Automatic annotation (TrEMBL):
This is Fiber protein Fb11. The chain crosses the membrane at residues 16-38. It comes from Dioscorea zingiberensis. Keywords: Membrane, Transmembrane, Transmembrane helix. PANTHER family: OS05G0542100 PROTEIN (PTHR36026).
Length: 65
């Protein structure tokens, strides 16, 4: 009996376990592929952090002096 035959029997006998293994495989594979792609995007353009007084003024509605 070949490997594919055994795999088919396993999927028929244990569909929940087979689906769980498939989901786990995607969970291990996707971060290994997607993360380097996201890291390769240009992130040199950083947004400057606002001054704390501006943040407090925006939250409280009071204008800073």
């Amino acid at each position: 009996m070949g490997v594919m035959e055994k795999l088919k029997i396993f999927v028929v006998q244990e569909p929940v376990v087979a689906a769980s293994c498939l989901i786990a495989g995607f969970g291990l594979f996707l971060p290994a592929v997607v993360r380097p792609i996201l890291d390769s995007f240009d992130t040199a353009k950083q947004v400057p952090q606002p001054a704390l007084s501006d943040v407090v003024a925006g939250m409280t509605g009071k204008k800073g002096e």
